[in-house]
Specification:
Blueprint (H helix, E strand, L loop, with lengths): L1 E2 L6 E2 L16 H15 L2 H13 L4 H15 L1 H21 L17 H12 L11 H15 L7 H13 L5 H13 L4 H14 L2 H15 L18 E2 L7 E2 L2 E5 L8 E5 L4 E2 L2 E4 L2 E9 L1 E5 L5 E3 L4 E4 L5 E5 L5 E8 L6 E4 L5 H5 L3
Antiparallel strand pairs: 1-2, 3-5, 4-7, 5-6, 6-14, 8-15, 9-12, 9-14, 10-11, 10-13
Helix pairs in contact: 1-2, 1-3, 1-7, 1-9, 2-4, 3-4, 3-7, 5-6, 7-8, 8-10, 9-10
């Protein structure tokens, strides 16, 4: 399997991890490094500060954290890295004022006559299954990757190669749209000494500490490297729009599970409806009222009888005319949330629930 990635372009095959410590899961230090990296990417200052504070409790040194954040500038940019270093400085100050332990650690200095390009080429080749490559489309980027990221930055032994890959995986899992790079670094992490057990522990850590989306992305990447099928639907962030309670009152009119959360609906506000992947409601008709759907998360479908289905993604608004037969629900590979409310409600307004959407029709949607 060959994947084009910004930081790794190589033939990626599941690598054999080090036989030693195969049954060990992530250490507290490794857990902290992954969480710190993810919160740096997300720009969540409050949770980053908590992760940094915990990192010191888990025996990370100031220099080790600095190394992780310095490395991340190559993946997330100077603004994120500098912001995070500022948070680190504040955490160090606060811990010192409280009399809490802060281990400075030993800083790394590049030796004289250090050959960045040579060192970086060696590191990058190891990362990519022992197969050197040239990113010929952009030679300057190729040089910076080899000489600076994998040379100057990775030359420091303040973090081990395995720890650096855990930092990278934590960061890329939190970066939207970087699936190919994440797959590349899952393979690379095994090549750099991360064990299978440690790798498989990372998604659970991200689920607990960071979020469902970050965990989902890493599980999907691990499955790709292992060559295993992956059929999970993409999650949504329930911290933004609440999932609510199981929609038991209307469950008979839905295929799959749905959930309802009142957004002050009692006083005229909308209801947030959450659909699990592949969940959809039956065909139905609203009489003497217009139903409005506002997609707020995930991906789904709206279908009106006699018309082509409409894909619903964040921000899409559908006003459903009265007396029109229709259905709506989630895509097969994604959770889906929409707000709904009714307007132009006339006398005797009602809803008629009809047959299920046929499997053939639903499965034809991409």
């Amino acid at each position: 399997m060959k994947l084009l990635a910004i930081f790794a372009v190589a033939a990626l095959l599941p690598a054999q991890p080090n036989a030693q410590n195969n049954n060990m899961e992530l250490t507290p230090k490794q857990q902290s490094l992954a969480a710190i990296a993810a919160f740096e990417v997300k720009g969540d200052i409050e949770k980053l500060a908590e992760a940094l504070d915990e990192g010191f409790d888990n025996a990370l040194s100031t220099e080790q954290i600095k190394e992780a954040l310095t490395q991340l500038y190559a993946y997330t940019g100077f603004p994120r890295a500098l912001n995070a270093l500022g948070v680190l400085r504040n955490v160090v100050t606060e811990r010192s004022e409280k009399g809490l332990k802060v281990v400075d650690g030993t800083a790394f200095t590049l030796p004289e006559e250090f050959r960045s390009l040579q060192k970086g080429t060696e590191v990058q080749t190891r990362l990519c299954d022992g197969q050197p490559f040239e990113y010929q489309f952009a030679p300057r980027i190729d040089y910076y990757l080899k000489a600076h990221l994998f040379g100057d930055v990775f030359a420091s032994d303040v973090l081990t190669p395995a720890e650096r890959e855990i930092v990278t995986l934590g960061a890329l899992s939190a970066l939207e749209g970087c699936g190919s790079q994440l797959v590349a670094h899952v393979s690379g992490a095994l090549n750099m000494g991360v064990t299978v057990a440690e790798l498989n522990s990372l998604p659970g850590l991200l689920q607990r500490r960071v979020g469902a989306m970050e965990s989902f992305r890493l599980r999907r990447a691990i499955a790709a490297v292992e060559g295993k099928p992956f059929t999970e639907g993409e999650p949504v962030d329930f911290d933004l729009w609440p999932k609510g309670e199981p929609n038991t009152a209307y469950a008979q009119y839905f295929v799959g599970n749905s959930y309802l959360a009142s957004m002050n609906a009692e006083d005229g506000g909308p209801v947030n409806v959450t659909f699990e992947p592949a969940c959809r409601n039956n065909w139905h008709i609203h009489y003497n009222s217009v139903q409005v759907l506002v997609c707020v998360a995930g991906r789904g479908w709206y279908c009106q009888q006699g018309q082509d289905p409409i894909e619903m993604t964040t921000g899409k608004v559908i006003a459903i005319p009265a007396e029109v037969k229709h259905w709506h629900g989630a895509a097969r590979d994604s959770w889906f949330q929409h707000l709904t409310y009714t307007t132009r409600v006339g006398e005797g307004a009602s809803t008629e629930w009809l047959e299920e959407v046929s499997s053939a029709q639903y499965n034809s949607l991409k």
